[in-house]
Amino acid sequence: MERIELAGISVEALIAGSGPPLLFLHGGDYVAQNRPFLDRLAQRFRVVAPRHPGFGTTPRPAWFRSVNDIAYLYLDLIDRLDLHRVTLVGSSFGGWVALELAVRSTARLGRLVLIDSLGLKFGGREERDIADIYALPADEALRRTFTDPARFVPDYAALDETELQAIAHDREATALYGWKPYMHNPALVNWLHRIAVPSLPEAVADHIARFAQGN
């Protein structure tokens, strides 16, 4: 893992592989499960995978409280690393960050890939588009999170205390950024027209994710 200083924040980041740049923005739970996926991508891309402020060992300053802040931070990261025609991949909560980044600027982006992205709500006020993972029973939350829970759900019981504390810390940060309104930005759908780069629909992105995991 490397450290990149941005806006006074020491951002923890995995940088691996060589080739065209790919910026991977992680979701909100157990980021270690992404490592095999990122290792496969690193065979074809220069993968940059930062930990959002408040996640992992990346600190979150008191002033840093919104998904918008994360989006601006990663625009600075792209500039700092002088990346061009970046493949921007966002998974779950990271997909929301990717969308917020892309509506602000696509100047250095080559394409956008979303995997089960949060951030958007298309139904009415009383319609629940996004499952409340904090209210669901654990087995139901896992069923909704993983396409094949029997194969891909981490064995949480086998994790040590440090790993479990890290997961709890990451879930806390996810709630801080996305609690109200729940896991979406009501205005975001109105700015999607600004994303003027090729974008893969989630079904295709999910296929790519399975391929990268060796399935």
Q: Mean pLDDT score, rounded?
A: 89
What percentage of residues falls in helices of 4 or more residues?
25-40%
* CATH architecture title: 3-Layer(aba) Sandwich
The tally of structural domains comes to 1
What is the 3D shape?
globular
Strand elements, count: 7
Can you describe what's shown?
With 215 residues, the protein is an alpha/beta fold. The protein has one domain: Rossmann fold (3-Layer(aba) Sandwich), CATH 3.40.50.1820. 34% of the residues lie in helices and 18% in strands. It is built from 7 helices and 7 strands; from the N terminus they run βββαβαβαβαααβα. It has a 7-stranded mixed β-sheet with strand order 1-2-4-3-5-6-7, with helices on both faces. Strand 3, helix 1 and strand 4 form a beta-alpha-beta unit. Helix 2 crosses helix 3. The longest helix is centred in the last third of the chain and has 18 residues, at 161-178. The chain is globular and about 45 Å long.
Protein topology:
Layout: E1 2-6, E2 9-16, E3 21-25, H1 35-41, E4 46-50, H2 67-80, E5 86-91, H3 93-104, E6 109-115, H4 138-145, H5 149-152, H6 161-178, E7 199-200, H7 202-212
Helix pairs in contact: 2-3
